[in-house]
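Listing S7. Sequence submitted for prediction.
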Amino acid sequence: MDGLALQYVVVGAAVAASALYVFLTRFPATARRLRGWIAIRLVDSGSATLSKFGRRLAPKPRAQDGCGTCGGCDPPG
């Protein structure tokens, strides 16, 4: 029974990773807004650890004059 449970955990993790990949590649604007929403909640939580994680999770600012889809206008670094 333990081997079967481990197999279910591995398959579940693979399915979750695949779903996350599809979400990030097919819906980048929605993923960006979701990351921003979560990051704001974490920064405003009052906890230093969650605030630090929220700052790392926040999406990088986009160029204002470009379309913002390819990332070609972003400064290197």
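Caption to Listing S7: primary sequence and predicted structure tokens for the chain studied. Residues 2-57 form one domain. The helical segments are 2-26, 28-43, 48-57.
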